[in-house]
Write the structure tokens for this entry.
Amino acid sequence: MFAKIRNELTLRYSMVMMLLMMAFIIVSSTGMLWILYREEQQDLRSFTEREAREQTAMYKERAAFFQFPYQEEENADSGAKIFYYVFDKHGQQAAAEEAEGGIHTGVLGIIGNWSAPDGVVELKKFHDANGDRAVALLCSMKIYDGTEVVGTVFVGENISSYYQRIKILLIMMVVLCILFLVIAAFAGHFLAGRAIIPIRQAFSRQREFVADASHELRTPLSVMLTSVDVIQTEEDQKLSPLSIQVLDDMKDEIRRMTKLVTDLLTLARADAGAVNIIKERFDLAIVAEQVLRSLQPLAATKGIELAIAGEAEIAVLADRERMKQLLLILIDNAVKYTPAGGRVGVLLKTAAAPKPCVTITVEDTGAGIPDDQRALIFERFYRIDKARSRQEGGTGLGLPIAKWIVDAHGGTIKVTSTFGEGSSFIVTLPV
Ligand code: ADP
């Protein structure tokens, strides 16, 4: 149980760490990219405006565009190169500082399909002359002579190497985060183990207390029961009808308490792993018939038909006493929660596929179990109708014990039920 809690804590801790790291990568990288992109955008727009202004002035002076190198504008840090192209009103290239690094053709292709308005910077991805991925920022601006458009200037920046470096940085961040996540998962597992120590100690003290208390209570309870029996036998003639009734009620309560204490002790020992499952080969059908016979009188008093069906011989390797206890709990419950005139059936079957197993089905035509409570009935002291359970001598510990027995044999227990019509408890045990 504690190993499960520890693993769950580790998993949750790692999930939180993973979400935090993912949020960190997403926020930091998008923030960083956005700031860089905005800066580059603004720079390129002002370069384009300046270029357009100069070309306009030149056109007015000489009726032609001019060509000048853009050396001073190069962004030395990033290795990004500024380039520009001027096209006249006929779409002929009139001046240029050509794009370098094999992207010239790609850039011209983009310019050929250019549709963005003046001053808008666009990020374009394409392939360079070597087939490698290239990334460039481009901005255009029309050149006017009065109101007439005489040409267009395109200014661009090759940011491929820049882009590549950011990509490597991001990959590094992701790899580092995965590494930290693995370290955090180990640390989480270790810390969860430390955090569980006091809980484990408290739990085991409480378990010991329940086991000791139940054990100590068993003797006084059996003494009390015997004492009431002695009084009833010896003082039989002298007792008033009220006293007889009181003593009978006392005996009922003592039996109920004895059952409760025995069930508590079984579960406390099971929790502590102190109950040995002694497996032997036997015929489950014979054991089921024995249990059925022992419950037949109770069923008869309630007017319930109790029947067994299925294979006549079922060889199993299991703990005989625990199997008896399991069948007793399930059949006794079926009889308890089925009204007079109802029917309780036990079906024993073996199956070969998907894995060889034995199934025990206990079905009744009783009260049924509401959908939302089907999983809860296997919890300790959970009872759908407390008054009814008490009246039937129930403790709320029968099904938890049944589940423990099934788990200890590596099997499963399931319940299907239609509320108001009946229930079926299906136990599957591996062979
Ligand atoms: P109890 O001692 O009260 O019978 P159990 O652990 O055996 O405790 O069962 C838990 C609860 O599940 C019962 O109180 C009852 O409400 C419900 N229950 C168990 N078996 C049946 C059944 N065959 N039909 C209807 N309800 C059932």
